[in-house]
Write a structure and sequence with these properties.
This protein has about 375 residues and is of the alpha/beta class. The protein contains 17 helices and twelve strands. The strands form two sheets. Strands 4-3-2-1-5-6-7 form a seven-stranded parallel beta sheet, sandwiched between helices. Strand 1 (about 5-10), helix 1 and strand 2 form a beta-alpha-beta unit. Helix 2 packs parallel to helix 3 and helix 6 (about 125-140) runs parallel beside helix 11. The chain starts with a strand and ends with a helix.
Length: about 375
């Protein structure tokens, strides 16, 4: 059996690191062809020594020299810059591209991989949030399958496999509620970044953890679900499920609901995307229903977490508005992580960007990049 040759974009982050653990468990099935990191050159060098990829890329070109020196005694080829990433993902030596770069920076290499007809294991939310119509249209034209890696979208994907073409009436995305689920609005308003980074269930990078605290992350997932599953926003529901055992659900015309369950562990959806349509063994914690206890559900509170409602609004408006929302959010979250602004200032900044952006009803990829640059510049000047 031929090994699947994987490119991991964002290999030193949370998703990338867990993907490499999947590879460790199945070296007979997977081979790492390309590793990409932004700044973590020491970790990238260590990964390269362990997995012996054909090439590595450090996106921060200033770190090329140190990385090249660190790997000088190996056969690993070292490159730098996002352009190199775009070139290498199109290589004949790559079968599947795990897109796990953080933020809008993941869009360009994902597009390059799609144009090359690669299988895309998509963990980068911002790709579909900012450019959903463009990306999905391109994927169809290039016959590039997009397999979801987010636990919620992987859950829906798995539930739909059992639908057997029966009509789906609603998608239910579950949300943990984040670290502030039980906090009053007044207490949330005073929260600093260290408070927001204490997620109760998942271990993620700083940016996505803040997005979980604001529930912007769940808003992003609503937009992703719209594009991945061709489902209108009125048929995508968010329900808070603090235990994070049910990862999402699909509801059918007769009222039946199929749910996908498991302990919070991103290796499961990562592995499924890499091995699909097969399921492989995974050394992880298995559910014990006798000791699991209660599973609870709550209505999402858009009063305390207005970013979720804003995401629905941006999706309803369409065009380049979700791109503007994402760009403003990335700048605002970066400022919050440095404790330069308050928690609810993130919402105020993003809301102004959403209402103030020049609307493009049917944006091209160039329009998306232009919108992103303009909004980032505008928000940065306002801080």
């Amino acid at each position: 059996m031929n090994k699947r040759r994987i490119a991991i974009l964002g290999s030193t982050g949370s998703i990338g690191s867990q993907a490499l653990d999947v590879v460790r468990q199945h070296r007979d099935r997977f081979e790492v062809g390309l590793l990409v990191a932004n700044n973590s050159s020491d970790t990238l060098a260590a990964q390269a020594r362990e997995f012996d990829p054909g090439a590595v890329v450090i996106c921060n070109e200033a770190l090329y020299g140190s990385l090249s020196s660190a790997l000088a005694d190996t056969d690993v080829k070292v490159f730098a810059g996002i352009r190199s990433v775009c070139d290498l993902v199109a290589s004949d030596n790559i079968d599947i591209v795990l897109c796990a770069m953080v933020g809008f920076s993941g869009l360009e290499p994902t597009v390059a991989a799609i144009k090359a007809g690669k299988v895309i294991a998509l963990a980068n939310k911002e790709t579909l949030v900012a450019a959903g119509s463009v990306v999905m249209g391109l994927a169809e034209r290039c016959a590039a399958p997009i397999l979801p890696v987010d636990s919620e979208h992987s859950a829906i994907f798995q539930c739909l496999l059992g639908a057997q073409s029966n009509a789906v009436t609603k998608l239910h995305l579950t949300a943990s509620g984040g670290p502030f689920r039980t906090w009053s609005k007044e207490r949330i308003a005073a929260a600093v970044s260290a408070d927001a980074l204490r997620h109760p269930n998942w271990h993620m990078g700083a940016k996505i953890t803040i997005d979980s605290a604001t529930m912007m992350n769940k808003g992003f997932e609503v937009i992703e679900a719209r594009w991945l599953f061709d489902m209108g926003p009125e048929r995508i529901n968010v329900v808070v499920h603090p235990e994070s055992i049910i990862h999402s659900m699909v509801e059918f015309e007769d009222g039946a609901v199929i749910a996908q369950m498991g302990h919070p562990d991103m290796r499961e959806p990562i592995q499924l995307a890499l091995s699909f349509p097969e399921r492989l063994p995974l050394d992880n914690r298995k559910l014990d229903f006798a000791t699991l206890g209660a599973l609870t559900f709550e209505k999402a509170d858009t009063g305390r977490f207005p970013m979720l409602a804003l995401a629905y609004e941006a999706l309803a408006r369409g065009g380049n508005i979700p791109c503007a929302m994402n760009a403003a959010n990335e700048v605002a979250v970066a400022a919050y992580l440095q404790d330069k602004i308050g928690f609810y200032d993130i919402y105020s900044i993003v809301e102004r960007a959403v209402t103030g952006t020049d609307f493009v009803v049917d944006p091209s990829l160039d329009d998306i990049f232009a919108t992103d640059a303009a909004v980032r510049s505008s928000v940065a000047r306002s801080l």
